[in-house]
Specification:
By secondary structure, the protein is α/β, with parallel strands linked by helices. 44% of the residues lie in helices and 11% in strands.
């Protein structure tokens, strides 16, 4: 089998931490005196924490000094970390381990490419850290998706050419980042949302090992 590089986003692909982000942002919004809905939270998918807070303050019509802004960023993260502290293997999304086990068995290098600054502790909590040959997260990048930086660094760390990499993503910005990196993008989510993906599956239960084998052999 040829050597490809398989790069996974974290939130919404391996685990669903979006609900914890939402609860932490909602708590902050309520403290600042306004509501924050799950629909509005959709705008936060694949977006940096700084940009999320900017959007949140726009929604609430709240003006902030730099000091307040920095404090609220920290407050939100502390709340979020309290949620992920309780995570375990039950939080892994369906059939993720089936895919990872297949790739390991076929000696395919695996990387994480995520905007999350908490990617490593989350993978430790759910027991998946050992599957990954490289971790590229919010601590290692300066540019947010759709900039391809996170995926290009991951390809480099795996020692694989970008055009030989396959990216699993659930966010529009992430799919665009993969395409900007000249990689194959496999969307995990809705076909009518992730329209720029090369393939879209609702989740990993729809993705067969035969399909994966075909990607490896390409």
């Amino acid at each position: 089998m040829s050597k490809k590089g398989f790069i996974f986003d974290l939130d919404g692909v391996i685990v669903d931490t979006a609900k914890y982000h939402y609860l932490a942002w909602k708590k902050l919004a309520n403290q600042l005196g306004f509501e924050f809905t799950e629909e509005q939270n959709e705008m936060f998918k694949g977006v940096s924490r700084k940009r999320c807070l900017e959007i949140l303050l726009e929604i609430g019509g709240v003006k902030a000094t730099q000091e307040q802004f920095d404090t609220w960023m920290i407050d939100k993260n502390v709340d979020y970390l309290q949620y992920i502290e309780k995570m375990d293997a039950s939080e892994i999304l369906p059939d993720v381990e089936k895919i990872l086990n297949f790739l390991v068995a076929n000696k395919q290098p695996i990387a994480l490419g995520s905007a999350s600054k908490n990617a490593q502790p989350i993978l430790e909590k759910v027991g998946l850290l050992s599957y990954f040959n490289a971790i590229v997260d919010g601590n290692s990048v300066t540019k947010a998706k759709p900039d391809p930086e996170v995926f290009l660094i991951a390809a480099n760390q795996l020692g694989v050419n970008p055009q030989d990499c396959v990216v699993f993503e659930d966010a529009i910005a992430g799919v665009e980042a993969a395409k900007n990196a000249n990689m194959m993008a496999i969307g995990i989510g809705e076909k009518d949302v992730l329209v720029k993906s090369d393939f879209v599956f609702k989740d990993f239960t729809e993705l067969s090992l035969e399909f994966l084998e075909g990607l490896v052999k390409k």
